[in-house]
Amino acid sequence: MPPTVSTDQGSSPGLAAYADVTASETSLRRFLHGLPGVDQVGAEARAAQLGTRSIKTTAKAHALDLAITMVDLTTLEGQDTPGKVRALANKALRPDPADPTCPSVAAVCVYGDMVADVKAVVGDNVNVAAVATAFPSGRASMEIKLADTRDAVAAGADEIDMVIDRGAFLAGHYLQVFEEIVAVREACQRADGTHAHLKVIMETGELQTYDNVRRASWLSMLAGGDFIKTSTGKVQPAATLPVTLVMLEAVRDFREATGVQIGVKPAGGIRTSKDAIKYLVMVNEVAGPDWLTPDWFRFGASTLLNELLMQRTKLTTGRYSGPDYFTLD
Amino acid sequence: MARIDVRKTYKLYIGGAFPRSESGHSYEVQDSKGKFVANAALASRKDVRDAVVAARKAFPGWSSRTAYNRAQILYRIAEVMEDRRAQFVQAVQQSEGGTAAAAGRQVDEAIDRLVWYAGWADKLAQVVGNANPVAGPFFNHSAPEPTGVVGVLAPQSSSLLGLVSVVAPVIVTGNTAVVVSSYSRPLPAVTFSEVMATSDVPGGVVNVLTGDAAPLGPWLAAHMDVNAIDLCGVAGDDELSTALEVAAADNLKRVRRAPAAEPDWSADPALSTMTDFVETKTVWHPIGV
């Protein structure tokens, strides 16, 4: 089952309480800087400690299948051809053709101009996500960013991955970033009243501190993002466990404060199934089991899927598998 | 005042590094008279897994070196072994018993064998390759190419000469190796790893696991990313070697079958020690008009 696209959450009564926070640059700054600081050493130690959990046998099999259903299978290269994205879309539908019990992934993530090619293959069985707003740098005029978004939505994208303007964020122009997200969110609206799921990429590798990650998370959530996403995958470091920990705390606190649930998507740098399982443990321990579904947690990855499939094959056949037995992406 | 012994706990050799076993286990190694010598790491299946990954990673680099360069590196291993001859003699004598002179002869033969195989690196293609006469306007020629990652269960009794005699022919043609050493006599293999770490052999080309071939063999034989396996280390155990051959058949591994008993390693090796682990590539090249 593909994850459902949730209905509009902007009218939630909980969010209304924050209307005056986002009313002006000053109030927004006061609010974001009033968020409690992140204990860097504590966050890193907590993330490392959660990474030591041992997940074996049936729990591991469950975790691997869950992780596969959470993968946003991604290709974001200048050299992407229609043939390549079609092959990737087929892989998204049936990641392991040799094993019909293997679940589909959550979505295929491509550039906006490739959406139609993917959609033609996957139909409604797997979501199609498109990166927009001058991905990956986000350096373009607002009109171009909005046109980029509308194009992708019109081509049939179920989800939009937008990048925030990190320059504006680091310069302290929070309201500008906020209004951009709100505008892109409006551009995600479809004629029939539904809207494409909006994932907000914060590019945590460029935000410098965990405090900034927490601020950017709250900013994105207040602006109406359905998901907060760590990175574009084009900047090192990309997703790390401590950064994701801070974001998971943010979505947990946000739901407590407003009643609105927001998803989290770490992307980039997650390559082994062991890493993926560490993230799942952290989701369960920090945000809670409510987030352990593809509707609320995703992995942005390309090579991770083959690793998950190899581990899955190892569990079902009892022998180690090799990369020769899975498709190259 | 009597000096206190430095009691050693050796580690594995995987990907050019010396990690402890993933299991954390080690076992006591005794000399030929049953006296404690040192602790050796007891490799687990996950060490096999890691070693295969390291060997696979090293394969493209190693196999694309020129044959001449591989010869130089094998010769370099022999040179470094020669430098550490005394240590090898002691390790072999401790493991296998006998006189220092007998152990010295084993070490000399092991070094000579490396030099012998080093010489084959750029000659094997001339001997087993061929220009094939075909009925058509083509140059047609065949050449041996390395098969990939080779699992090697090293001999149980000949701890150094036997080890060198199964490892050198595997790597000289460009394969990378995951070696399970003799269980009761692992120390010469440990010293051999230290030699390889310091003699220009790229990390991951030879990975040495000290441990028991009986539990490790099936994981290596069934591993889908291993291209060939040498079963010498389970010589004499028909049931196990048959089971390993069956497991190896799943991905059509090349198998060098276990002999009925460990051979006499001082005899000149056959070419098949190398050709068992190569693929013959045949090229049809149109003759230009």
UniProtKB/TrEMBL annotation, chain A:
Its EC number is 4.1.2.4. Pathway: Carbohydrate degradation; 2-deoxy-D-ribose 1-phosphate degradation; D-glyceraldehyde 3-phosphate and acetaldehyde from 2-deoxy-alpha-D-ribose 1-phosphate: step 2/2. Keywords: Lyase, Schiff base. One of its GO terms (molecular function) is deoxyribose-phosphate aldolase activity. GO terms for biological process: carbohydrate catabolic process; deoxyribonucleotide catabolic process. One of its GO terms (cellular component) is cytoplasm. The keyword Lyase applies. It catalyses: 2-deoxy-D-ribose 5-phosphate = D-glyceraldehyde 3-phosphate + acetaldehyde. Coiled coil: none annotated. It holds the Pfam family DeoC. NCBIfam families: deoC. Belongs to the DeoC/FbaB aldolase family. DeoC type 2 subfamily. This is Deoxyribose-phosphate aldolase. It comes from Nocardioides humilatus.
TrEMBL record, chain B:
SUPFAM superfamilies: ALDH-like. Residues 28-254 form the Aldehyde dehydrogenase domain. GO terms for molecular function: oxidoreductase activity. Pfam families: Aldedh. Keywords: Oxidoreductase. InterPro entries: Ald_DH/histidinol_DH, Ald_DH_N, Aldehyde_DH_dom. The keyword Oxidoreductase applies. PANTHER family: ALDEHYDE DEHYDROGENASE-RELATED (PTHR11699). This is Aldehyde dehydrogenase. It comes from Nocardioides humilatus.
